[in-house]
Each structure stands twice: as C-alpha cells, then as structure tokens.
Automatic annotation (TrEMBL):
PANTHER family per UniProt: COBALT-PRECORRIN-2 C(20)-METHYLTRANSFERASE, PRECORRIN-6A SYNTHASE [DEACETYLATING]
Keywords: Cobalamin biosynthesis, Methyltransferase, S-adenosyl-L-methionine, Transferase
GO BP terms, alphabetized: cobalamin biosynthetic process; methylation
Annotated region (Disordered), positions in chain: 23-44
Domain named Tetrapyrrole methylase: residues: 57-275
Species this chain originates from: Maritimibacter alkaliphilus HTCC2654
Name used for this protein in its record: Uroporphyrin-III C/tetrapyrrole (Corrin/Porphyrin) methyltransferase
Domain of life: Bacteria
Amino acid sequence: MAKSRRTRRFRRFWISLPARSQRPARIDGTPPTLTRPAKDAEKARRIDRGRRMKRNLMVIGIGAGNPEYVTVQAVKALNKVSVFFIPNKGQDKADLHHLRREICDRYIEGSNYRLVDFDIPERAKDGVYATDVAAWRAEVRAIYERLIVEELGAGEIGGFLIWGDPSLYDGTMGILDAITAAGQVELEYEVIPGISSVSALAARHKVALNRIGKSFTVMSGRQLSQGMPDDGGNVVVMLDSRDAFRDLDGDLEIYWGGYVGTEDELLVSGKLRDVAEDVARTRKDARARKGWLMDTYLLSRPSDDGE
Ligand SMILES: C[S@@+](CC[C@H](N)C(=O)[O-])C[C@H]1O[C@@H](n2cnc3c(N)ncnc32)[C@H](O)[C@@H]1O
C-alpha cells in the first residue's frame, strides 16, 4: 500500500549555528539573530566543510516508464539511499516527476529518506548546437554540485533516479565525473543499470534489434536527418523532434513506440511507405494531447538473405 506522503521526512540541510545560550545576549536579554555578513560567513564555512567530506551517490536506472521495469538490484539500491534528487523539467513533464515519486513510494520500505526537488534549466536552442549543449551542461553541473554539497549530510547516500538506463543518452555520469575532475568535491558513485526504452520497444514489438551477423546503430533524429549509416544494419532512433523517418526509403520497416511501457503506450509498425504518415499524425496528436512525447523507433532494412 502506498505510504502517506505526510509520514515522510522532508528534512532540509541543517545549518550549524552556536547554541543560543552560547551567543552573546542582547542588552534586553533576547538572543541575537545573526547579521547578514555573519550568516554568509557561516554558510561559507558550512559549504567548505561539506566540500571536504566524501560523498557517496547512486545512479539508479529505473526503466523507461513502467514501474515494473524497476529491477531487484534497483530496489535494493533505492533502499540504501537517504536523499533522492528529483529533477523538475517543466510542467509538461510533471508525469515523469510523478513516476519517480511513485517508484520511491512503492519500493522503499519505511520512510527514512527525503526527496529534494530541483529545476533543470531549459537548454538554449538558438546558437550552435555543441556550444548550447556545453553551456547547458556547465549550468546543470553547478546545480548538481550545489545539491551534493548542501543537501547531503555526513554518512548519507544521495540518489539520482535515471529514466531508462544511465548509459543511454543520459549525462548524469558525465556530470559527476566532471565534478570529480574539478577537484572541489570528493565523490564516489555506483551505477545500477535499467531497462532502456530501446529494450522496452523491442520487447513490445517482439522484434530483434539486429539482423543476424549485422550491427545496429543507435542515433538521434538529428543524426538520422543526415542519412542512414551505410553499414547495412538496422537503426534505432531516439530524440527525434523532426519526423526524420519521413524522407527515407519506403521499403524500410519501422517499429515505432510512444510512451512505451506506460498506460498511454502507442505502437505502430509496417513498411514506411504504408505507415509513415500514420506515425507522423500519431506523434502530432500525442504531443497536442499530453504536451510532451517520448518515442523511439527501430528501422529495419528489407532482408536480402532470406531471414
Ligand atoms: C534523454 S533520452 C533518455 C533515454 C533513456 N536513458 C533510456 O535508457 O531509454 C530520452 C529519449 O529516450 C526515448 N524514450 C525514453 N522513454 C521512452 C518511452 N517510454 N517510450 C519511448 N521512447 C522513450 C525517447 O527517444 C526520448 O526522446
């Protein structure tokens, strides 16, 4: 049964101040409040102490949408974490935020953990792609560093709940490595794999990702719009905001899935020449209905060897 939210401890980081009795009393006998510079100095001391303390983190893959994609290993890891850092990615993705909370409610025994929400900034999209991404990553890195230093107490384990699998189109490990490399904060992290949207898509369509003896490529919609790889293998496409499948050879077979594994799951498959418009319309309608869409598709080449 889901635990009441009220029973959970939402403890913020505790600021260490001298006991009231140790602070000089005011003339009228009331204890003093700290002045702004004194508060800032105290905060700087606390952060400095925090930076020198070693932090332990878990990067936990939670699967790509179905709470039952959470593995036994992930459940064990969830139960070790004291503080979960939960990203807010705007109103549209409130569902994803909700699912992370649901996973904690469902799989963690007791209520001896807390959730710290944080906002993920929007990435600028008007400049050079690589420059915009680098600037955005630096901003996110600063946020993570602040969270780790200010929100994680001594002996506590911090947790990041990663959609799908942490190794696929996710920057968390890279950001933690960059924080370590910068040398300001000492941290160690463990990674728990998760069921990626790619595995979930293949399972729902009951299709193998690669053809026998061939490789397969995972790429973004942006890359696919430059053309298919010429190695003759299949292609899995993620992060496609532009219907990149539309201009391809109509003989290709597409296995498309939106919100795979969730209650809103949508699946379409067939030869591109027959279903490309259907997929494009389904994507457009889904975005209009929910405000956001996460979809992935496999493009399979026509078999030339009787497979
Ligand atoms: C930032 S990537 C994260 C991928 C994730 N780490 C994984 O293992 O699936 C987000 C992309 O993953 C794909 N995706 C994630 N969840 C999905 C789902 N439930 N159904 C279909 N595609 C999904 C979409 O292509 C989406 O644009």
